## 1
Amino acid sequence: MQLRPVMDTTTTTIDKLNAFLRDELAAIETYEEALHDRSAFSAKTELSQCQRSHELRANVLRDKIVSLGGKPATTSGFQGAWKKLVEGTAVAMGPEMAIRALESGEDNVLRDYRKGIATMDPDVRTFLERTCLPEEEYTHRTLSDLKHRLASA
């Protein structure tokens, strides 16, 4: 009889929360890049609000990971670095490309949350649905609105 390894659900939960945290850290870095040297950019206020929303989510995710006995990610990791490179190149091309790249990033983060939340333990799912998901929906909607506003200008 072959024994199957028992999966530690706490570790799995922490791993998933760290994946969300890495997404948030990558978003913060990308917004920083988009806001750098753009003092006259008309959407600077909205981008700053979105960056702050990602910072708040990163903080609550860190706290949740620690409360579960885990160690929070400190960087966005390889995938985050790749996203930052791709989105950073678009950001350097100008405001319209920056908004498109940021919105695409928001699409990915929102998709990750929606997909990942469904697999979480009920208490962690509730935590994410009440704290992170509404904020991600806000930043996604803000970038989508900005993209449409720039396209019609």
Note: Residues 9-35 form the longest helix (27 residues).
## 2
Amino acid sequence: MEEINKDLKIERLRDKKLALFFTYGVSLELWEKRGLLNRELKLYQELGKYFNKIYFLTYGRNDYKFAEEFRKYNIEVLYKKSLLPNILYSIFYILYYRRELKQCDYFKTNQMSGSWSAVLAKWFFKKKLIVRTGYPLSANAKKENWFKYVLTCLVEFVAWRSANQIVVATEYERGRLLRYQHKLKIISNYVDTNLFRPLPKIAPTNKTRTILFVGRLSSEKNLSNLVLALNGVPDVKLCLIGSGESQEELSRLAKENSVNIEFLGNISHEQLPKYINQADIFALVSLYEGNPKALLEAMACGVPVLATRVRGIDNIVQHEVNGYLSGTDVVSLRQSIITMLFRLELLNKLGVAAQQKIVNQHSLNKVLTLELTNYD
């Protein structure tokens, strides 16, 4: 890690404490199960070098098993000790850990979901609150039912009004919150470019090309259309890393359409670069995104990306500059895949440009520097 800018005057953080309020229902154990633990932890390992202490307030009853290891990073795990259901626990756990929270100087939310715990803590203990928000809760809730939509709008409104600072990942998200312009700050998701980097490819034993997806197997990822788009495209194998409710449907679709597909399950963060680097194309064909980490990590590996021209992606990928943008429908995806597979010189160019963009704009060190300015 290169030295942080001295002008930030971060020495004064040595006696400060930060509390991170986990996303509602999320635990360290869940991060580990999904192969996300080291990815999510990396930033706080680095921040722990500057703070007196960082507290993780999680929803995991088994998260005590991480406590000893995390202490070496200056992180103390405040895990769930209660049998209360999560919705009640999210309201009352600030009283369980009131001694630790009173000692803190800053509270921070990991996502908007569960932010009400941090807001309550701010009201009780009169500390500064940083609200980090990704894709808006209300946008998803609007597609489900009106009650959930109204409730999530209220959660967002209270969190934004209560925050001393609001952190968003993209310009689009900033544009939605211009009424809070004086509190807003853009900090993109980061990539550990020491881990995610170009690696030598293993020479293939056959002419089959590999298209790789990494993420949750769910409807918004539009994987059904990706499977259908590969119907009739010869010598292509689709590999999916991750888990989710769509796996059974995708397996059925692939069988019905004679698509070569492999479900690799959850892969640890440390092993991901190996899988990404062996792919010919990384595909993220979602219907919408926030600031997708998997996309940034694939680009950091110098792998050509096929992505959809949707919010949360088109601000990262420039068509035929550092990636290839497609429509979300089957016909557009099929045409884009065929074009990429038969233009090898384009693939090489896209991979090099993608890797350079991540190094220049999304490295862990750049994000850490911006993150530290939150506490000025």
Note: The radius of gyration is 21 Å.
